[in-house]
Amino acid sequence: MKRRIYVIWFLALGLLIYSCDDALEEVLVTDVSAASYYTTEKGLDDAVNATYSFLKPFYGQEIGFTMTVFGTDTYNNGADGSHKFFNFYDTSLNASASMARDAWQTWYRGINQANGVINRSAAVDMDEAEKTVRLAEVRFLRALYYFNIVKTYGDAHLSLEETEGIEIEANKTAKAEIYAQAIVPDLEFAISTLPAEQSDYGRATKPAAEFLLGKVLLTRSYTSFAEGNDASMAETLFGNVINNYGFALLDNYADIFDISNQENSEMVFVIPNSKSQVDSGIDDYGHRGHLYFLQEYDVRRGMTRDIANGRPWKRFRPTDFTLELWDRDVDTRYDASFKHVWYANKDEPATEATAEEPARAALAIGDTAIFIPGPMRNDLWPQSRQDTKPYIVITDDEYSERLFPSLNKWIDPTRPDRQKTQGQRDYMLMRLADAYLLRAEAKLQQDNPSGAADDINVIRTRAAVPGQEAAVQITGGDVDLDFLLDERARELLGEGWRWWDLTRTGKLVERVRLHNPTASPNIQDYHILRPIPQEQIDRTVGGYAQNPGYPQ
Fold first, then answer.
1. Alpha-carbon gap, residue 162 to 182, rounded angstroms
2. Which of 126, 155, 445, 487 is most solvent-facing, going by the fewest CB within 10 Å?
3. What distance lies between CA 372 and its chain's CA centroid?
């Protein structure tokens, strides 16, 4: 499948419609105004592609990981970074938080871009069937951006019309109305219109729209404005994704994260990243997840920073709760998700014993330099055994903000040099295993734990250590919402959904207090929403109401 849609993303940015507060950077289009260009078939195509571009500033970037990984039960803060207040829940998490501002602006710019495409499309002379498909893509994206806004900020500004120039008036529409007027009808239109497949990899498809509407309805099923069939409709939609389009789970869980095997049968909808675009500088985003989940390996004996091991920015370290989630004797997912061995990439001479350290034998390039046996292996690695090794062994009791098990899902050895921050991995917005887990959640919402167990067992069977398939099976009696959230953590750790999973299910405050010792002292009930950005409040005539709990 072609990735052409993304080749022109950043060229199309110069044609973007004005956003709510200002214009984006321009790329000169000779002898044509944006308004007139949009009335051509090529202009409409570029405008549609530009609507996709607003996926990139959040997904796969530090902002996206920070706002979905920090402040949850699964991840605590590492040593570095300047946005730890998303984990601390202290007074710095307020209307001036730049990431809360930037996410709000990005999604509203995407919405306004979509509105402009929809509003101007009537003047475009082109094949009507093709035009309708492109409009369905744009409505899919508008629904996604609005969904992100309401599940992050709650009640928010609703507009289905294009804004040109500076906008100083804004409404605060109830979430229920945004679901009813924008998100659900946009996705219903997308489902009725989009094809099952597209030739350009990364374009929206019918199964992607069904997946997203399923998640929208599942999320609404927990709210006070839920409709009676939300969970059953979500179950049906996820079932369609699972059964109707030829998607299939990979045999080996670790293969999902093989960077040479990205366009695989498990991917429902992704944000593609092209190595050629990233390396050439056309794409300034890429996938930067390889930076944030790594321990400080590069100052240890026998090690220096290199491409294969990544730049260790030490943002996110797993909580103790996270590291105890897997039974490693029967479940492969911990060992597939975390890095265990760092091999020496420089020679190191032997050392003599000191008061703090035993004598160490010399290390040659390729020797083991650091070994993390991982959780529940301390009994195998007493200090007396560690002292006999030429390499460093880091056991549970030695974890810190600098030394901790490192998630290896996003490590990117294809970068051209060790300083390059943009990676070429695709960002997985929707994959088949998540459809199974979300369908299980929809079944649980309908008091069908046995049906939920059936779906969960599909995922657990794939994850089983060979020969242990029977040992990983569960029954309906094992399944409640907490078990399901644990299973989502085992399968989807670090993939950018956790904060939204916990807020959707009403479990954020409870589970953070139980499992995140840094976040637990400060988190309050109102933290299920992020603060409305100060810029939005300041630029709105008459002000704009802040979310409850945050300073006005």
1. 14
2. 126
3. 26
Nearest to 164 by CA among 35, 38, 53: 35
Rounded Cα–Cα distance for residues 461 and 491 (Å): 12
Please choose, from the candidates 280, 330, 329, 287, the residue with its C-alpha nearest in 3D space to the C-alpha of residue 310: 287
Sign of CA dihedral 21, 27, 28, 34: negative
Residue pair 374/340 in contact by the 8 Å Cβ criterion: yes
- Residue 123: how many other CB atoms lie within 10 Å: 12
Select from 212, 234, 210, 209 the least CA-distant residue to 222: 234
Q: How far apart are CA 154 and CA 176, in angstroms?
A: 10
Give the C-alpha separation, 216 to 212, whole Å. Answer: 6
CA distance 434 to 484: 12
Q: From residue 357, give the alpha-carbon distance in Å to each of 342, 370, 388, 397.
A: 20, 15, 11, 17
For residue 204, give the nearest of 280, 289, 135 by alpha carbon. 135
- Per-residue pLDDT of 489-514, as tens digits, reads 999 999 999 999 999 999 999 999 99
Q: Which pLDDT score is estimated for 209? A: 99
Quick one: tokens of 331? 């479940």
Percent of the chain with pLDDT over 90: 86
Place of tokens 């008091």: 447
- Considering the entire predicted model, what is its pTM? 0.94
Rounded distance between C-alpha atoms, residue 519 and residue 318, angstroms: 13
Residues in the chain: 552
Which amino acid, 212? L
Angle at 391 between CA 388 and CA 393, to 5 degrees: 85
Per DSSP, the residues of 351-396 read B---SSS--B--B-TTSEEEE---TT-GGG--HHHHTT-SSEE--G
> What whole-number distance in Å separates Cα of residue 171 and Cα of residue 411?
42
